[in-house]
Design a protein that fits this description.
This protein has 114 residues and is mainly beta. It has 1 helix and 6 strands; from the N terminus they run E-E-E-E-H-E-E. Keywords: DNA-binding.
Length: 114
């Protein structure tokens, strides 16, 4: 039961080309945005789309998979956990960011997807 305390699964489309960073420690980190869509009909019966954007962070081997195979527009499945961090802006304002730290990435769509 402890594995579902902080567990996220998302399927969506990559919003921009992933940013890959090689750290001094030799570790690799990948960051990209993921759009998930929900569809519903409004009061007039017209189909509507609600898009949510998520920031995805992948480390190590998972980041290497992202670097090789993930590109803007590609449909992927993500399994991971939520992580919130804070930082201080140049104006001395405290900001908070919630990201999905990906443990697994599933490449979806056809092989021809670019």
């Amino acid at each position: 039961m402890s594995t579902i305390k902080n567990h996220v699964q998302l399927i969506g489309n990559v919003g921009q080309e992933p940013t890959i960073t090689n750290l001094e420690s030799g570790k690799k980190v990948a960051r990209f945005s993921l759009a998930t869509n929900e569809y519903y009909k409004d009061s007039k019966g017209e189909k509507q789309t609600d898009t949510n954007w998520h920031t995805i962070v992948a480390w190590g081997k998972t980041a290497e998979i992202v670097e090789k195979y993930v590109a803007k527009g590609k449909e992927v499945g993500i399994s991971g956990k939520l992580k919130t961090r804070s930082y201080t802006t140049d104006d001395n304002e405290q900001r908070y960011v919630t990201e999905v730290v990906a443990d697994e990435i599933l490449l979806l769509g056809s092989k021809d997807d670019k």
